[in-house]
Amino acid sequence: MVSEEEQIHFFNTIFAPLREKVSVKDAMKAKSNASRFLMGECFGNMADDVLEQWNLDSLTDEEIESWKWLMAMRQKYHEFNENEQIKVHKFVWHKKPNEAGWGPKLVTEIRGSDRSEFLYITKPMDERTISKIRTVGTKFNLFQPPQQKVKHNVNVEPDEGFTIIRVRADAGDTLENRFESIIEHPQLEGMDVLFRQIIGLYLQDTVDHLPALGFVAPIKYGKEWKYGYEWTVEKNPQLEFLLRFEKTAPFLVPLRWDKEERTRFITLLHGDEWGGNFMAPPSDAGSIRPIDFEDAHIQHIKIELDPKNNIRSYLATSQGQDSPTSQNQGSHLSAGGKLAYRVTSYWSGEAPPLHAYSAMSALGRLFAALVQKQTLKTNPQEVDVWIEEATALFFNILRNSLNAFTSSTNGTKYLTSLGLDPEITQRGLMVRAVLAAYNWSEHWTCKTRDHDGDEEWYKGKWKKSSLEEFQFQLGVQGEWEVCSRDSDGRPTTTGHDYAKILRNEIETSDDWTDVEKTDIRKAISLLEEFGNTGIRVAGKQYRELIYLNKLLPFEKA
Amino acid sequence: MNDVQFERRVELTKHNRLENKIEFINTHFLLTKEETRDPPKTTVGYLNECIKNYPLNEHWKNIWLIWRDIYSVVGRELPLNPDALWTMQVNFDAQIHGENINQFEKILNTFQTGTLAQRDEQTSVRNLVFSKHISYLNSFRKRIELSSSDDTSILIDSKISRFCTAISEAIFNNRSEMNYTDLDFLTKLMLEANEGDREFVETGFALDIPLFVMGTFAELGFNDKTLEIERFFNALSHSVTKCFSICAGQEVNDEENFLMECMLGIISHPKQQLLRSWGVEFIVQLNPQTRRALEDVGWYKFWANLEHFPSLQFSKVLDPTSQNYDFLKRFFSD
């Protein structure tokens, strides 16, 4: 028998996050107690009809709904956890008052040999919400990489006491777990493959011969970054140049289309990019896939294609209202979650501006999230080494992937039609990805952690040393992205620029003889050698233009 | 600036054109080689006039990066122009140059406090700035390797060596006394400049600094074998080896006699003669066990042979016009 005081104490514990702002520790305690109750570990010997007699007078409507859901879940829990093939993926409980989204949920994974079925079991939803989630989920599934074997509509079923959202997908491990296993490996083996899989999701050039990437016009004077106000010139002079550069670049957004209506394009924003919300494929092939669409946004796009499916202009939002009951009318859809509104401070309405769907920004956020989480699990002595390695590798692969797109037939046509310089555009996009990672690294500095005596070593949820190293590496990376490079990928230096000055002479003037040109070319090659090494090289013998020996970058013979 | 006469040059011949370009390159080369914000006034004036008369436009974009350096040196701000996309590229040297200058000044500031005790207080700041800057430079190594498959990173090595050299020379030229903490910092510079495959861009660092540090030993007590001195000797061994190999030339074969011949031919500068003399002193000081351990080491074999050549009188090679003359004389006078 449970006394009324014990009942009230239990309610106070599990509903504390709904009533006031609580510490992380108390939020975890609320979740833990709710979870234990659901699994029958707490008040496990009590019959359901006895629990139903508990006095709910002290609870709000929202709390009563959550309590009833918890009861219903407890009664069916054995079905969701009946054997080794069914795995509870995660349990989500209330964290704070006025939460948006689906509220408490249990996510299970039913594992098959080559595919899994994810069940999101939420509180009961009304018909309109169910319809909306079904539509958004089904469209969101278009985001899946084309290598995915399983393509299907998201199924949303009302049940007694809860709603079940079913999503099927190929089997795999979470991105977070995969990254952790790589970091634990001394040589970081497999990191390059994993980064290609991450980037592969966002930078698919085409899917089924239709363009899967499109450009949105740059915002030269907009406020793109949520934490940008802290990027003052004094604090981060490195970033000043990058920010100015970034404003010149258009936004690259992912494109998909309705299966039934291939001319109706959409773009997608996951909205909660972190390693636990993506699955890594079981083999080296393919891309990661997103598994949680609660915070997703989907926007219909106006797109102008020529007869050969080349995009002719910048993308724009198509007109129309959010109308989940009619797939053909709505221009913007979301599944109810609000987390996506964190990505910039520029907007807070229902329909995010098109640039918020930026693929490069999403990649920057996802990478920053992977790093932040992993630094908390890694030996502090080893963190700096892998942060440098991972940052350099991630952005190098991203640059190569982007280059593959901009130099592809489709990419070239697109850039040409918009009058965009491929190299500068590519650099601007890279800078945006770096800044997005930086911006998101600031995100966790604003999070609070409980007092545990280690406060001096932390800034928000970052270890200070890890944050410092990560932001330092991002600063270096940003500088590297704007450095000019030769065709072999080596950085160009003043030596190369000196060489350009001389090359310009023989390319634009036709009054040099062949012998003289040969002399000038000799000097050019020496200047380039000086540029590649930074070391002065020995001068050469010239046949006619002896005064080339006066060039100071050469050592005197 | 009044002494600068700017001349809009008439380029009557193709040779005038090419010579002007060579002059432009040479002026810029001297400017960046200084690695400080204090180039000769005439150079600054010349560049200022250049800027006035050659406004940035598409025609000049090929040398945009050079202009960018020049603007920063003459203290002008050159904002990016979003409508001229070609202005968005940054030359790697320009990037590093700007950062070098900032860190260079920070480190030198820790030497501007006057007394040894005050400088001691600045040690941790100085070491931190230095370490972070070396990390910054080294961070590009991985990126160059990934981008170009070039794993030699000679470019980064030369940047680090040059940076260390520039600081060392600045310290050398501005200090008349040192303590063990300063010595430790110089040792650190030498180690960084020599690590891995790095080679000296200029020989000044290899020759002048050891001389100066030797003077410091004299001041502190030459026979006092502290940890700092041990570390210095190790660093110096690397330094001298590198320096000699460069003096001898990369293309020279390893035949010892030929190397000796090259070295004796090259050692003509007073400071190098001094180093040779000091080399003899150094070898003599080593105990027999260390000598046996070093028997097969190239630089040791070379130095050991120096004993067979007439040593020079230290006092004869000291430069009386040097601002450190009095200080060095105390140690090196006969």
How would you summarize the topology of this molecule?
The complex is a heterodimer of chains A (557) and B (334).
Chain A: H1 4-14, H2 16-19, H3 24-38, H4 48-51, H5 61-80, E1 86-92, E2 105-111, E3 115-122, H6 127-140, E4 155-159, E5 162-170, E6 173-174, H7 175-184, H8 191-202, E7 206-207, E8 210-211, E9 213-216, H9 237-246, E10 251-254, E11 256-257, E12 265-269, E13 278-280, E14 289-290, E15 297-302, E16 316-317, E17 332-334, H10 359-375, H11 380-406, H12 409-418, H13 422-443, E18 458-459, E19 462-463, H14 464-482, H15 494-508, H16 514-533, E20 537-538, E21 554-555
Parallel strand pairs in A: 20-21
Antiparallel strand pairs in A: 1-2, 2-3, 3-5, 4-5, 6-13, 7-8, 9-10, 11-12, 12-15, 13-14, 15-16, 15-17, 18-19
Chain B: H1 14-34, H2 41-53, H3 64-73, H4 92-109, H5 116-121, H6 123-148, H7 154-174, H8 180-194, H9 204-220, H10 227-248, H11 256-266, H12 270-285, H13 288-293, H14 298-306, H15 314-317, H16 325-332
Helix pairs in contact in B: 2-3, 4-6, 4-7, 7-8, 7-9, 8-9, 8-10, 9-10, 9-12, 9-16, 12-14
